[in-house]
Amino acid sequence: MLNFIVPPKQGIPFISVQTMAKVISDYGVEQCITDLVDALEQDFLRWEKFEKSSRFASHSKDGVIELMPVSDGNMFACKYVNGHPINTKRDLQTVAAMGILSDVETGYPILLTEMCILTALRTAATSAMLAKYCAPKEAETLALIGNGAQSEFQALGMKAIIGISEVRLYDVDPAASKKTADNLSNSGLKIVICNTLEEAVLGAEIITTCTADKRNATILRDNIVTEGVFINAIGGDCPGKTELDKNILMRADRVIVEFEPQTRIEGDIQQLSSDFPVVEFHRILKGEVPARTSANDLVVFDGVGFASEDFTALVFLRDLISKQKGYELLDMIAQQPDPKNLYSIVNNYSKTPVPAMA
Length: 358
Prior knowledge:
Layout lengths: L11 E4 L1 H11 L1 H17 L10 E4 L4 E8 L3 E9 L13 E7 L5 E6 L1 H19 L6 E5 L5 H11 L4 E5 L3 H10 L6 E4 L3 H5 L4 E4 L6 E5 L9 E4 L8 E3 L1 H6 L2 E4 L2 H7 L12 E2 H5 L13 E4 L4 H18 L3 E3 L12 H8 L8
Helix pairs in contact: 2-3, 2-4, 2-10, 3-4, 3-10
């Protein structure tokens, strides 16, 4: 049986946004991403152990709400997450996310946490992990197309794992690029704000596209993508949303996905026929298929985010907070002395005198 962080009768460990910020700040963003890459590799190596499914999605005119479940037989994880680009006009987050980790043997939740920050970390770690195996050797320059909530994490992840030294920023909203540049001003990276997408992409060995709009779009055109680069396309997350010119995919030497059934629905490959060849990343990690065979290969990661990555992040967080002891306990599971007498909680409460209000 899994050892709980604390005995479950004491409550469920809960990580708020402010607690998460402190935990990650104390440990270090780059160190978190580095550790997450190691953990992700280990979990992708045991890919067959996971009970996998595409996420459940409820679409509306303004966005999508999703549930992302997965289990390895010992623990079960699920993330609630939305994607509403219109929210920025309402002074709200585009993404609101929370996650739960549970013990399969008892069914008890053992962690409840915010997952806006944690998702950004695991997405950056996944991108950096793919770049570790797919990017050109000694890559130095990252073009970051789309400078929203993920951008700083992406840059720091590529710095920590790949060793990039320059980041070129481009966004249709110049204020987003300035925000990212300001946040990365003390990162040790050379930050260049570009006026055009072409300026950002020219000469970059790694191109990351991370845009939020839920529409089919051609963020990256075929005629500006040269041989030998690694394209980290991570904006895809629902049907009807794309970022890449389909010709980029068709001429790529390798198109890599996480969980093929989900990516066929949500990724950039939704533009192509159902038999278009792709490779799931776990096969590259296991050495079954090479990521690239020459320095001139064009390699694309069609990343949509998969639930096993959230599982990895939740377990990482569980272990991290068990060392830091900086979490709250939520009284969310009934814990009466007689497990069969649930009514006793209500009955005893009704007999407890309620203090008079002043």
